[in-house]
Design brief:
Order of helices and strands: HHHHHHH
Shape: globular
Number of helices: 7
Number of strands: 0
Mean pLDDT: 92
Length: 149
């Protein structure tokens, strides 16, 4: 087997799960399933805020702004979180990896979120039903993570 092929399988495949890891993998997938529509709703709300303060933007311009405009920088930790969860759900992982994801979620969406994120997130949460619904779904997914032994 080529080393390139080995690296591909290491990134995209996982060994069969035991019962404990299957539960954790399912919880990861549920977290992602909750975060993706909430992320989309936050992007749409931020886009509307940007249009009020600056200018309306189309989809291609929005993609550029999401990548490099300070107005949208607060969304980057959430974007990275979704990517990391989706990558982890496709490969082997340890319980500590899941715990680290849960900690990151708590830092963004817990009772005391990171101030830079909360400053923009909380007002949108209070006015956007899709964001509130996403948060409820995320909390349900977090309940699927078994307590540490």
């Amino acid at each position: 087997m080529s080393s390139e092929r080995d690296r591909f399988f290491a990134r995209t495949m996982h060994t069969p799960d035991d019962d404990a890891r299957a539960v954790l993998r399912d919880a990861l997938r549920m977290m992602s399933k909750a975060l993706i529509p909430m992320h989309r709703a936050l992007i749409n709300a931020a886009r509307e805020d940007y249009a009020l303060g600056y200018e309306a933007v189309g989809p291609s311009r929005l993609m550029q702004l999401l990548g490099d405009d300070p107005f949208f920088a607060w969304l980057k930790p959430m974007t990275a979180l979704i990517v990391d969860i989706d990558e982890m759900a496709r490969r082997d992982f340890e319980r500590s990896d899941v715990d680290a994801i849960v900690d990151r979620i708590q830092r963004l969406f817990g009772s005391t979120p990171e101030p830079e994120f909360a400053e923009r997130y909380v007002p949108i949460l209070q006015r956007e039903v899709d964001v509130a619904t996403g948060l409820a779904a995320l909390r349900q997914a977090l309940r699927k993570v078994p307590l540490k032994e």
